[in-house]
Amino acid sequence: MLQSHLQDTWVTPTATDGSATDVHDAVTGDLVCRVSSAGLDLDGAFGHARRVGGPALRALTFHGRAGLLDAVAAAVRARREELYVLSARAGATLNDARYDVDGGIRVLRDYAARARAELPDAPQLVEGPAERLARGEDFLGVHLVTPSPGLMLQVNAFNFPVWAPLEKLAQAVLAGMPSVVKPATPTAYLTEHLVRIVTEAGVLPPGALQLVVGSVRPALDLLGEQDVLSFTGSAATAETLRTHPRLVARSVRFNAEADSVNAIVLAPDVAPGSPLFDAFVREVVTEMTVKAGQKCTAIRRVLVPREHESAALDAISAELAGVTVGNPAAEGVRMGAVVSLAQRDDVRRAVRRIAESGRFVHGDPEKVRAVDADPERGAFLDTLLVSADPEAAAPHEVEPFGPAATVLAYRDTGHAADLLARGRGSLAASVVSDDVPWTTGFVAETAAWHGRLHVLDSLTMGQTTGHGSPLPALRHGGPGRAGGGSELAGIRGVVDLMQRTAVQGSRRVLDSLGA
Fold first, then answer.
1. Is the distance from CB of 36 to CB of 13 less than 8 angstroms?
2. Percent of the chain with pLDDT over 70
3. Which residues contact 459 (CB under 8 A, 6 or more apart)?
4. Bridge-partner residues for 499, per DSSP?
5. What is the SS3 assignment for 436-477?
6. Cα Rg of the chain, angstroms
7. Strands 152-155 and 228-233: what pairing?
């Protein structure tokens, strides 16, 4: 039975009635662990975070909190090989594991460096110069940003069991806020091991980091006005949480980063066979195969000019044909399994629905050859490329959270912009073009529907960090279906977790605050 870490102690749940959930190896189907939160003292854990963890963090300056992030990063890096090994049980290749683990370490270090460069060596922040509020010179006003005396409840998705909690922890620690982490059940064993690494290193103050394995539904009724619920997961769950009576009644701050039907748009100027066209193909295939397509930012819709549709389908299919699927530990395997058999079945249902208006161009949702693995016991899928009617609803509404993408042919620029908007908001979209006037006009027309726009041209295709990579310096979130939330965004994301208060007074009082 997987343990939780509450009030600085590892605790075993008391589930004896068969209510625990079995978690299986994505590759072999073997039992990995059982998950339950039965009998856990969540009320005590929340109280411990507020009474012990919060005051310890708030007593430090921003620079002192940055030192904690560096220490956590060093502790995880020293034992990251352990996390790589466990990641294989979730179907991840070594590259997938590094994307998750090393990415989390980089975020910690980035935020530590930003805090030292952009924030004062003080426990609070005064924004901007003082504003004169009267005819004289003595009555002034500033905005004071202070830590909230609450906690962050992290509810994370299964696809990034290391990066996601570390990314949220980085901002919460800098904001002086303790974290209670709730991992998704299918990969909870990875987050549990991550927390063991951090707690065994002893680098955080007591109460600053706790872990709840299993359901936290009862904990939602424990949230208050100074707390933050930071959620990553499905749009449907985000909608349910947003309307939870406790969150509404207490105005609990809620941040959602939800799934979305992200897109890439090939502009009319990019000719098939050109270097930029080839870069476009690689971008699509990368997003379909990294972590077996299980990324909230992954490309699901591939918008191409009608005259280039056949060339795009042929080129993407040819590239996908070279992707070997199987046991992540086997030589030559480029893509492992999705996280579970249930997830495999969800993807199958989604792609079949999308293909009702078109056809499968590459792959078969029911058949896959898996190297060094049993394709029936493991949660394996082929790479699935669909050509669909762009006017059909399903390609814009249904997200196959796996190695699948749909090619949609557009008539003209206006039609392409309209198709993008039919996704009702997304985390990320890419635009591929060397036509600068076309690109700037298209970006201006479509930006409102996206949290991030990735522009790929001949100047950047050798340097790009890629469509699907959230970066600490830039906002990660999106409007509408994508949840309307925001993560990362540099120091802006830290300040978003704190309380901004307008303080009016004399110069000597404001000076004492650091104005």
1. yes
2. 99
3. none
4. 146
5. HHHHHHHHHHHHHHEEEEEEECCCCCCCCCCCCCCCCCCEEC
6. 24
7. parallel
The owner of tokens 């339950």 is: 36
Encode 95-110: b = buried (16+ Cβ within 10 Å), e = exposed. Answer: ebbbbbbbbbbbbbbb
To which H or E segment does residue 232 belong? strand 228-233
Condensed to tens digits (0 to 9), the pLDDT of residues 254-276 reads 999 998 999 999 999 999 999 99
Residues forming the active site: 257, 296
Written as one letter, the residue type at 67 is G
What does the alpha-carbon distance between residue 149 and residue 224 come to, in Å, rounded to a whole number? Answer: 10
**Nearest CA-CA partner of 296 in 419, 477, 430:** 477
The confidence score (pLDDT) of residue 16 equals 62
Return the pLDDT at 497: 97
Residue pair 420/261 in contact (Cβ under 8 Å)? The answer is: no
CA dist 181 and 72 (Å) reads 15
How far, in Å, CA of 457 to CA of 280, rounded? 9
As a whole number of angstroms, the distance between CA 73 and CA 202 comes to 12
Q: Biggest alpha carbon distance in the chain?
A: 80
pLDDT tops 70 at residue 17: no
Please spell the DSSP secondary structure of 10-55, one letter per residue. Answer: EE-----SS-SEEEE-TTT--EEEEE--TT--HHHHHHHIIIIIHH
3-state SS record for 280-291: HHHHHHHHHHHH
- Full-prediction pTM beyond 0.85? yes
Instruction: Please say whether the beta carbons of 38 and 20 come within 8 A.
Output: yes
Asked whether 315 and 297 are in contact (CB, 8 A), the reply is no
Query: At how many degrees (to 10) do helices 62-78 and 94-118 cross?
Result: 160
Tokens found for residue 348: 């199958």
Q: Which residue has the tokens 């090939």?
A: 266
The rounded distance, in Å, linking the Cα atoms of 461 and 282 is 10
The C-alpha atoms of residue 287 and residue 185 are separated, in whole angstroms, by: 24
The C-alpha atoms of residue 383 and residue 474 are separated, in whole angstroms, by 30
Least confidently predicted of 127-131, 270-274, 378-382, 386-390? 127-131
Q: Are 171 and 57 in contact (CB under 8 A)?
A: no
Provide CB contacts within 8 A for 107, sequence distance 6+: 163, 166, 167, 170, 472, 488
